[in-house]
Amino acid sequence: MTLSPALAGGRRRTRRHGKVHAGLKAKTLKRMLKAKGKKTTGKKSTLLKRLKE
Predict the structure, then answer these.
(1) What does each C-alpha distance from 31 to 13, 14, 36 come to in angstroms?
(2) Three-state SS across 10-50?
(3) Cβ neighbours, 10 Å, residue 29
(4) Any idea what DSSP says for residue 4?
(5) pTM of whole model > 0.85?
(6) Is 10 part of any domain?
(7) Which residues, other chains included, contact 31 with Cβ-Cβ below 8 Å and sequence gap of 6+?
(8) Residue 39 CB partners (closer than 8 Å, separation 6+)
(9) Which residues form the SAP domain (predicted)?
(10) Residue 51 CB neighbours (<10 A)
(11) What total of structural domains would you count in the chain?
């Protein structure tokens, strides 16, 4: 089964490290970070890292 690039977020779904929440979009991340009172600028991966802190 092939994923459309839109679905895969631009990257193939092969190299997945750790638990990446499939349903998390950058917008969602920003909302969660804002709730925690953290900075909401940066790439999606950056936001994810910040969320785990």
Answers:
(1) 25, 27, 9
(2) CCCCCCCCCCCCCCCCHHHHHHHHHHHCCCCCCCHHHHHHH
(3) 20
(4) P
(5) no
(6) no
(7) none
(8) 33, 50
(9) 21-53
(10) 15
(11) 1
Residue 9 within any structural domain of the chain: no
Look at residue 27 and tell me whether its pLDDT is greater than 70: yes
Is 19's pLDDT higher than 70? no
Longest dimension (CA), the chain: 40
| Domain extent at residue 43 | 23-53
- In angstroms, rounded to a whole number, what is the distance separating the alpha carbons of residues 41 and 16? 23
Whole-angstrom CA distances from 38 to 20, 24, 25 are: 20, 17, 17
Write down the residue that tokens 């459309």 correspond to. Answer: 4
Mean of the pLDDT values across residues 15-37? 75
